[in-house]
Specification:
By secondary structure, this protein is of the alpha+beta class. The chain has 2 domains: 242 residues, D-Maltodextrin-Binding Protein, domain 2 (3-Layer(aba) Sandwich), CATH 3.40.190.10; 219 residues, Dipeptide-binding Protein, Domain 3 (Dipeptide-binding Protein, domain 3, Roll), CATH 3.10.105. It is built from 15 helices and 23 strands. The chain has a 7-stranded mixed beta sheet with strand order 8-9-10-1-11-19-12, sandwiched between helices. Strand 8 and strand 9 form a beta hairpin. The N and C termini lie far apart (48 Å).
Length: 519
Amino acid sequence: MKNTKLFIRNIVFLPLLIAALVMSLTPWTAWAEIKELRIGIGVDADTLNPQEQTTTLIQNMCDLIYDNFFFQDPEGKLHPRLATKYEVSKDGLTYTIYLRKDAKFSDGTNFDADAVKLTWDRILDPKMRVPLRFAVGMVKECVKIDDYTVQLKLKYAFAPLGPTLSLTLVSPISPAALKKYGEEVRQHPVGAGPYILKEWVKGDRIVMIRNENYWGKKPTVAKITWKIVPEAATREAMLRAGQIDVCYKPLPSNVASLKADSSITVEMPLDTRTIFMGLNCQKGVTTNKLVRQAFNYAVDKKLIVKKILFGTAVPMDGPVSPKVFGHFKMDKQYNYNPEKAKDLLKKANFDFSKVIHMRTPNGRYLFDKQISEAIQAYLQAIGVKVELRTYDWPTYVAGLLKPIDKSELEVFLLGWGPLILDADMGLYGQFTCEVNPPKGLGAAFYCNAEYDKIMKASREEQDQKKRLALLKQASEFVWEDCPWMWLHVEKFVIAYKSKIKGMVVTPTEKFYPTYVTEK
């Protein structure tokens, strides 16, 4: 059985290796090298340490600097990168990972089992800040077998560990860089990826240049400049004027006009990212489930998608995106019903004299502030007093990470985008007790031992049908409890010059310009 699994994995990889060989034989003149690709983005990086990541866009940058063990394509298939393959023991408790022998870190030092083990030791060290540690919390230790082989020893079998190996979280850092910079490596990243950090001017730009010693095919883009432009409208104007080549997340209201421009290509695949209003389950009026349900009925999510987002999202019909394995449309739907909302508040003995403090970022998600303003109006329409406060993204994130005794969160807009196409990263990563701040990013502080038991069983279950049944049970459980106002699933909107060909855009809200060409 074990050999059969390996055979299947290698069959998946074989066409990709053949394609890479064909591409390597293609004359260089067939590729139009791009000297500089300018990308307009809305936020600066907080850290370029892959283990410290919380933001998809910055993880996207890290992938280009560090590379990944595997790449998960838009269809969910795994492609070998820094690892060539993996094997799973019969009991599911040992993963043997075979490393690429021809890769080096961009500082010239060896990429090998010692570097990989050091990375995993850091990830598993409870003293280290690793916000997404829950994703690999089942790993007990990393053991070096030889110079290019490691084994991950698991505390319990974990069905989606294969895709998890594609995460930025586990990308290895050069041991020499760690020795030289210590934790300031977050400002001086050194990896084994196709690009090297050349310049980082805070609040203005991040510049990467091609790693000429990259193990893989030579990138067709010599230089990538990430230009930080907080206002989406300004990014769009810069794209039209030729000042940038790629516009990250243009305004939803302008997507139609961008599509109508023959000089611009717009891509907008349905994303894994869910947008929600977190409802604090351990503090304030939202500790009452009836209140949380009432708030869900009070908001017209379909109208928000239509009128504010101009169709660049779809209303949530379950607690995770339809793009992931384990998504189920729930039988019960919180359709707009203000009268039912009022009735539930009466049953909850809601104190209408209290002021609810709502928080929102501005510019992190599609029309996030406008959506929050609409929700504020919907709640006020059923008699709830709401004060809305807007924060810049770094300040907002700092507030999300405070423990419950210091948290000021009541109702807050946030997005969560699983980075593998599996419901576990949503259902486990946001709603289990383990991920409550400051250990994780489950800022609604939802914690239910019965729910955790279901999710633990789903992680250990190797039979896909049985696992799906458990994920459905968990979805129904948390959907009823409403730790969120279930809003919508975003489409990942990215616009770029139509002469650019070969852009890889994924439903995990990442895009890869490494091998784009210019016609």
